[in-house]
Design goal:
single chain; alpha/beta; 7-stranded mixed sheet; 6-stranded mixed sheet; 41% helix; 21% strand; binds NADP nicotinamide-adenine-dinucleotide phosphate
């Protein structure tokens, strides 16, 4: 067993049971959580199965009326306390995250702060849920809208941001008055359970905040199909998102889906090549390339292909790979060995069709004893190769030469995904034409990262439905009701 508990300043944050109706629940069986950097066991965690999921949904439904009637100012205070506790425990939460997921410790702590930013924002927004008055055609009548919480929300989250994908989704739901049931990814339940411990300390009433751990195939249908569940908030792959949407359709339940991406990273010939290279390194190698907004297809105008390749090669060769707890490491292990095998196949497939490896291009599993893959730079891959068509989800940057704006827009849009895109140019005309021409929910211009608590996060096409972040998040978790009053002022 790993030494995670002993590394924590507050050992009560090491929780391995589900959190249901304010209690820690053991379940009938357990599953292992492993450290991808060395494959050692970190913990065994409760599998509460369908029965536990039902218990959690029932508890959330029972807490619903009280929580929605709680003053928004009181809800704001509790959510803000949760934020404060998360930040006070940033170091421990970072250690838990780095050990179960494998991102470097500094980056893991950064994720905790990023995720906490959404909690703080949601606490502030709890006080700003507004309706409107509307002029109606009937003489003497009045019309107005009110916004009310949708009810119990199931939140199903992925392993690549074990903390922030929970806080970004759950804090606005909680703030506007929705009780929640979270099902974290099997690889990374410990971050979710530590957040539950802090939620309990923050003072959420019993049943408002629940975390169920265990096998998705048993827990999932309860969370998508129980009568008491009003909405499903999901972050994860497009494939699972489609399945959950299908399950939710039976009860016409509301869905908010944050799904996969295939981000173009476009570098125009007027761009600052050094800044574009820095930006790509920052965006691409974060979380070892395992993010939904990770640059996946780097489109480079032909005139600067040589310069950019050179600038990148120099940088990629210097990216430090290693244990997440080692000082200066920029890329940790991938989530598990299968992920390394998948990335290896994508790369070898592209090479077999003529791609050239400029840097990296190999598994480091044997030499490093964990799920490591070398930071990689590739040129000359076929646009039809699996490497270009699929989410790479690994530390591999692949460059594609392009001629002009028309070709760039066409190629960028030649994917069923539409989450994030990046554009490097200093020409204002190009900024407008390209950002308006490409179908992506978020576009960073001369900026390699797009998410913040203030701004809308979400995708078009098969990358999802709905937006998290900013004022839009509260709208996702509220119903808009219209009231027509007549017969009073006649
Ligand atoms: P995943 O396989 O879709 O899993 C995501 C979550 O869904 C996990 O909690 C998983 O549980 C659960 N799940 C799987 N099958 C289920 C089922 N039949 N019923 C109910 N729940 C089920 O995705 P992942 O591999 O964890 O995450 C990577 C994907 O997430 C990538 O495609 C990435 O682009 C996407 N992502 C999107 C965003 C965004 O904001 N758009 C952010 C981050 C990640 P188990 O772990 O127990 O299987």
């Amino acid at each position: 067993m790993s030494d995670l508990r002993s590394r924590l300043k507050d050992q009560n944050l090491f929780r391995t049971d589900s959190f249901i109706n304010g209690e820690w629940v053991k379940g009938d069986s357990r599953f292992d959580v492993n450290n991808p950097a060395n494959r050692s066991k970190v913990a065994d965690v409760a599998d509460v199965g369908a029965a536990g999921a039902k218990q959690a949904v029932k508890a959330a439904a029972a807490a619903n009326l009280e929580w929605r009637r709680t003053s928004p100012f009181e809800r704001a205070r509790i959510v803000k306390r949760w934020h404060d506790l998360i930040m006070e425990n940033q170091d421990d939460l970072g250690v838990i995250l780095a050990m179960e997921m494998g991102k470097p410790l500094a980056e893991a702590k950064g994720e905790i702060a990023y995720g906490a930013g959404f909690v703080e924002w949601a606490a502030e927004e709890a006080k700003r849920v507004h309706g409107e008055t509307i002029a109606v055609p009937t003489p003497g009548a009045r019309g107005w809208t009110i916004r009310q919480p949708v009810g119990v929300v199931s939140c199903i989250t992925p392993w690549n941001f074990p903390s922030a994908m929970i806080t970004r989704k759950c804090s606005p739901a909680l703030a506007v008055g929705c009780p929640i049931v979270i099902k974290p990814a099997a690889e990374t339940p410990l971050s979710a359970l530590a957040l539950a411990e802090l939620a309990a300390r923050a003072g959420f009433p019993k049943g408002v905040f629940n975390v169920v751990t265990g096998e998705a195939k048993h827990i999932g249908p309860v969370l998508t199909q129980s009568d008491e569940v009003a909405m499903i908030g999901f972050t994860g792959s497009t494939q699972v998102g489609a399945l959950l949407m299908e399950q939710a359709a039976k009860g016409i339940k509301r869905v908010a889906l944050e799904l996969g991406g295939n981000a173009p990273f476009i570098v125009m010939d007027d761009a600052d090549v050094e800044k574009a290279a820095d930006g790509l390194i920052q965006g691409k190698f974060r979380a070892g390339g395992q993010t939904c907004v990770s640059p996946n297809r780097v489109f480079v105008q032909e005139a600067i292909m040589g310069d950019l390749t050179e600038a990148l090669a120099e940088r990629v060769k210097k990216v430090k790979v290693g244990d997440p707890f080692e000082e200066g490491v920029q890329v940790g292990p991938l989530i598990h060995d299968k992920a390394v095998e998948r990335v290896s196949e994508l790369v070898s497939g592209a090479v077999s069709k003529g791609a050239k490896i400029v840097a990296g291009g190999k598994s480091l599993m044997k030499e490093m004893g964990g799920s490591f893959y070398a930071p990689t730079l590739i040129t000359g891959a076929d646009m039809a190769s699996s490497l270009a068509v699929n989410e790479i989800f690994g530390p591999v940057a692949s460059l594609y030469p392009v001629k002009d704006e028309a070709e760039i827009i066409k190629l960028a849009n030649a994917t069923p995904y539409g989450l994030a895109a990046y554009l490097y140019t200093r020409d204002a005309g190009r900024v407008h034409r390209i950002t308006e021409g490409i179908d992506f929910g978020m576009i960073g211009v001369n900026a390699p990262m797009v998410g913040s608590p203030a701004t809308p996060f979400g995708g078009m096409k098969q990358s999802g439905i709905g937006r998290e972040g900013g004022k839009w998040a509260a709208e996702e978790f509220t119903e808009l009701k219209f009231v027509l009053l007549s017969g009073i002022d006649e």
